[in-house]
Design brief:
Radius of gyration: 17 Å
Shape: globular
Strand content: 15-25%
Structural class: alpha/beta
Order of helices and strands: EHHEEEEEHEHEEHEHEEH
Distance between the termini: 44 Å
CATH class of one domain: Alpha Beta
């Protein structure tokens, strides 16, 4: 059995501030250790359930957060950016299951550190009529290869977001949101216990969990924080400005939709 793990940091227990998620800040060093250990818990759970190959993709910011010297030897690590599939780099149809560890809720949802790829750029991301966060977009990319997301860890707002899309996906809640910048967090040891057991349980029933799929053509509507950002994004071919701060892109697949979203965020991020 082959398992893909995409790891973010904002959904890790104890992480409630951008200072903890930003490499230039002192608190970041503690947070990346917490992130690495939650990923290790998922790796251990997957291995206990029979995973023979585990690939971890570092998916936060610079994508060089996970401490490889602390990573379980049962896994291999994809590190660095830019990557053609970003948070899902390395996924293909050879995998049996995907786990999203340390994830967060979509922008303006009320979750801890909620955003969708970039809170400075994206006010909302809508895919095929569904207001979407990173969970949905990344799950759709996995689904385009026929691979199900079987487990997602993060806060309670994210858990509800996941269940609204596919109730059979396992969730592990490691903190309860008390606002965008506050949360009621489990002790790290307890969070890891739940992730470890949740990963094993989810993987054992992976065959029962359907992939998240989006039928093409896929309409991507990106609403930006301001109109200047939307005007810059609309420079990209096949992109239409449909309101002062919203663009429309029609993709032929979930993967193209994902890459278009990443490209526009990068274009706007240079302003």
């Amino acid at each position: 059995m082959k398992v893909f793990i995409s790891a973010d940091i904002e959904g890790v227990s104890g992480v409630v501030s951008w200072a903890q998620a930003s490499p230039e800040e002192p608190e970041y060093q503690r947070a990346r250790i917490l992130m690495t250990e939650e990923v290790n818990a998922a790796i251990e759970g997957a291995a206990a359930a029979g995973a023979e190959e585990i690939v971890v993709n570092d998916s936060h910011g610079p994508m060089t957060n996970l401490l490889i010297e602390r990573l379980s030897p049962a896994a291999q690590l994809i590190s660095g950016t830019p990557k053609r599939l970003g948070m899902m780099e390395g996924i293909d149809d050879s995998f049996d299951a995907v786990m999203l560890i340390g994830y967060h809720a979509r922008m303006n949802s009320g979750g801890v550190l909620c955003h969708t790829y970039s809170g400075r750029v994206n006010a909302n991301v809508n895919v095929g009529g569904i207001d979407s966060g990173e969970f949905y977009l990344n799950a759709a990319v996995a689904g385009s290869f026929g691979v199900p997301v079987v487990l997602v860890s993060g806060d309670d707002v994210l858990a509800r977001e996941v269940k609204a899309v596919n109730d059979s996906i396992g969730t592990v809640t490691v903190k309860e949101a008390r606002g965008r910048y506050a949360g009621k967090c489990l002790a790290p040891v307890r969070a890891r216990e739940l992730i470890r057991s949740g990963a094993a349980a989810a993987l054992r029933r992976a065959a029962e969990i359907p992939p998240v799929t989006v039928q093409p053509p896929v309409e991507l509507r990106l609403t930006f924080v301001n109109s200047g950002q939307a005007e810059a994004a609309a420079i990209m071919p096949r992109t239409e400005l449909i309101s002062p701060n919203t663009v429309l892109y029609r993709a032929e697949s979930a993967v193209e939709c994902y890459r278009a979203e990443m490209a526009m965020v990068r274009i706007v991020g240079t302003l």
